[in-house]
Amino acid sequence: MNVKLVGLLLATAPILALAQGQATKPSCASFVYNQKFLEKYPKAASACQEVTTHDGEQWVRFTGKVTAVKGNAITTTIVNTANDPLPGHLTITAPSDQKVTVDGKETKGWSNLTTGDRLDLWMPQSVIGFYARPGALDQQKLTITKGL
Predict the structure, then answer these.
(1) Any residues with CB less than 8 A from the CB of 120 and at least 6 apart, and which?
(2) What is the C-alpha separation between 54 and 106, in angstroms, rounded?
(3) Residue 36 — left, alpha, or beta (φ > 0 → left; ψ -120 to 50 → alpha)?
(4) What are the E-state strand segments in the chain?
(5) In angstroms, rounded to a whole number, what is the distance separating the alpha carbons of residues 94 and 96?
(6) Does 30 score more than 60 pLDDT?
(7) Distance from C-alpha of 32 to C-alpha of 60, rounded to nearest angstrom
(8) Whether this model's pTM surpasses 0.70
């Protein structure tokens, strides 16, 4: 009887560990969006690429496809997980030396962006706005000049 109990415990341990890991890992399905943000962008949840936690706060990552570049202002369209554009465009500015992640790699500066680049945009649960990386509330905020 002890052998059966040990066998049952060994068989269920990986399942229990997996369930515990999923309960603590943030996901797009569990991210709670700011209500004002959802009123403007009701399809935003379909554009969630991932969610991470930094210093106890959840951050959601969106992908923007750069459609125009003019000086340090870029226009981008947020895409959903199927890579289809959501309605509307955002125009965002940042200092020319602002580092951002483009096509999965950190760039040398905002001024190096070109049409067609895929730009990571992060937003915390507590604030409406985009940042270059999670945890950058006091720095690396991207200024939205049109669209949000």
Answers:
(1) 49, 61, 62, 63, 64, 100, 101, 102, 132, 133
(2) 18
(3) alpha
(4) 50-54, 57-70, 73-79, 90-93, 101-102, 105-106, 118-124, 130-131, 141-146
(5) 6
(6) yes
(7) 10
(8) yes
Structure tokens at 102: 């483009």
Q: What are the structure tokens assigned to 63, written together?
A: 């992908």
* Residues of the chain above pLDDT 70, percent: 82
- Which residues on adjacent β-strands are paired with residue 102? 105, 119
Report how far apart, in Å, the C-alpha atoms of 146 and of each of 18, 20, 137 are.
43, 42, 20
- Tokens standing for 106? 């950190």
For the chain, which residues make up each domain, given as ranges? 3-146
Bridge partners of residue 131, in order along the sequence: 122, 141
| Chain center to CA of 111 | 21
Region 116-130 average pLDDT: 92
Residue with tokens 């985009």: 130
